[in-house]
Structure formats: C-alpha cells, structure tokens
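Section 5: illustrative case.
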C-alpha cells in the first residue's frame, strides 16, 4: 500500500506488481499465435522427372505436429496459466478464445480421422469441457408393476391395484 501511495504522489503509472505484460497490443499477440500455428506445418517440394527428362515440381504442405495449448504457450514464451490470464483481458480475450478453439478443432479432426481415439477423447474431456452422455431411465412399465404386485399377498395386491387405478383415473 505504501508503494502505491508513493507512485501515485509522483504521478508514476508503472506496473505496481508482478512482471510487465509480455504483449501490450492485440496485434503482437495475434502475430505470435499465427507464427505458432504456422510452425506446426512443413512445406515439402516434390520434384518429378518424366521419361523425356522434363522436371516438374510441386509444393506440398503437411502438418508435422498437432496444435496444443502447451505448445502455444511455450511458443508465446509464457506459461499456460498466463495464457488463461490473457484470456480474461478484454483486448486479448477473443484472440485467445479463437486460438484455443483452433487447437480444439485440430484435436476433434484427429479424433474423426480415425486415429487412436483415446488420446483426443481424453484431451476433449479435460481441456474442452466435453462430457460423456449417460441416460438412465427410471420408472416402471405395466409389466414391471404386474410382476411386483403378483409377489405380494393377494389381499395387499388387490388394495394396491385399487389405489393404483384410482390414481390413473
């Protein structure tokens, strides 16, 4: 508190605590994020020579490593927690959300491409808030009620059936 008062008296607007932010503009952050995603791809030039000796080259681009949140944070030079803190700041929020969504989309595509599903499923549940859907039907149908009632003594069965049919009407 004493430091804050001294800085306010001097008109100094320095960061009052912690490390200064790594990114001050949304453009800087977006450029670094784009650099990370681009670094996950490799351009490969394929040259083919036909029977007549004519050489044709084509450029083929493929993803040599998947997008990850850890890889993104590491590429930005920050830790995962700091990435989450940037997402809370209004000027960086959409940029971080879109970057995380790009990573999530990449994981979903790996899942749908038919590769080993266990890894992407784990990631989606633990990082993208996906959940297993379980349905449990609770209730009795008429057959179940008949079986239960027939196991009761006759006088109790009759009284329960009378009450049950009164409720239905």
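Designed sequence:
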């Amino acid at each position: 508190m004493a430091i804050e008062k001294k800085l306010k008296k001097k008109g100094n607007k320095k960061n009052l605590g912690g490390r200064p932010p790594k990114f001050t503009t949304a453009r800087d952050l977006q450029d670094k994020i784009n650099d990370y995603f681009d670094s996950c791809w490799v351009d490969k030039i394929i040259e083919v020579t036909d029977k007549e000796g004519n050489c044709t080259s084509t450029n083929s681009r493929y993803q040599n490593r998947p997008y990850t949140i850890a890889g993104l944070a590491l590429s930005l030079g920050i830790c995962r927690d700091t990435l989450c803190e940037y997402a809370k700041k209004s000027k960086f929020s959409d940029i971080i959300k879109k970057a995380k969504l790009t990573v999530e989309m990449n994981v979903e595509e790996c899942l749908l491409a038919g590769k080993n599903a266990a890894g992407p499923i784990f990631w989606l549940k633990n990082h993208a808030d996906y959940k297993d859907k379980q349905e449990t039907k609770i209730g009795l149908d008429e057959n179940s009620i008949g079986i239960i009632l027939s196991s009761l003594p006759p006088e109790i069965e009759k009284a329960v059936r009378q009450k049950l049919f009164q409720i239905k009407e």
